[in-house]
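Reading a protein record of the kind used here takes only a little practice. Each token is a code from a learned vocabulary of local backbone shapes. With that in mind, consider the following protein and its fold in token form:
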Amino acid sequence: MTTSTTFSDTAPVQPTNSATRVATASFIGTAIEFYDFYVYATAAALVIGPVFFPQTSGTAQMLSAFLTFGIAFLARPLGSALFGHFGDRIGRKSTLVASLLLMGVCTTLIGVLPGYDSIGAWAPILLCVLRFGQGLGLGGEWGGAALLATENAPKGKRAWYGMFPQLGPSIGFLAANGLFLTLAMSLNDEQFRSWGWRIPFLLSAALVMVGLYVRLKLHETPVFANAMARQERVKIPLVELFSQYWAPMLLGAGAMVVCYALFYISTVFSLSYGVSTLGYTRETFLGLLCFAVLFMAAATPLSAWASDRFGRKPVLIIGGVLAILSGFLMEPLLTQGSTWGVALFLCIELFLMGVTFAPMGALLPELFPTHVRYTGASAAYNLGGIVGASAAPFFAQKLVAMGGLSYVGGYVAAVLSLIAVLCLKETRHNDLNRVA
């Protein structure tokens, strides 16, 4: 239960944040999140194994490298609970600064971490610790960024403000892949394996410093400041969430699944299928993905505007139905032997990812009252990722073995998300200052 006192109209007016500062501060964390995902995934595939696990076979090196990659995903739910707790207890600003600082320190240390040849078994041990730390920071990042945006938004523009964290995936994807393509063209294989792979991690740290500079200059969001003035808080927000708000949390997580499924099947499964089965080089397919992700970036502001104009549910329902229909295009477009067909499919899927992802920056925060909003939005976001991100490529590969690419389309559509959205009430007019 929350405790509350009367909030007087004579309470001091809280200072406000400029729209530019809110946009920059909420965008940069999610951009770094997806940048980190692709930087580490590429490094894991190319050099992490030989540098940190050289005493094992090539296959064991690869497995060990991807195990360290997965550690961050295991840590993310813990990070959402940890940072959600403090975000709902002490404030959005300080918690966002802490999550970004943790992420930046761990990223920088990975970039300078000596390999197995220098410090022996400590190298893989420390790598695992740093990846766990990255996962903790990332687990609390999106929820805080979304709240920073929506709780500072003027009336009728919450989805538009909430769009800025949603731009992170497309920008992070382009930055990471563009950087690795540049390194591939500038360095030989020996240079890349020796020191070149460290450059993206160090550049990520520079981005974090910019983010910290912006976030330290922020004021607390007016919604949270008002809640603190009314002395609304709970001792353990996670307990309150699971006891009182488990239904919106699960429905919010279900609504997120289609976003993750569209993105990771388009970028992870399709990349693997395109290289191993269709015969594309990795560089060619990455180039197609870099082109296609521009459509996701274009769809994001369009969908955010529409969800402010017409509501979250209509936009998500239309996006979900189109995702179902687009699944039937997967087999003919990927298997016809045309590069343009492959590009068209990737553009369609990533455009729809932008359509379904953009409204979530407003929808998930709107599902919860202020005193559990950070915890609830983060939990829904990360739970949806467990199903849509970590499981989607695996099940896609299984479905291909069972019946071909036409079966994968049904999973990409993520009918679960459409059902979840239909079960939700429209949230566009929800008052973010509500107590329950």
Summary: The two ends are 10 Å apart (CA to CA). Residues 245-424 form a domain with the Growth Hormone; Chain: A; fold (CATH 1.20.1250.20). The first helix runs from residue 19 to 52. The chain has 21 helices and no strands.
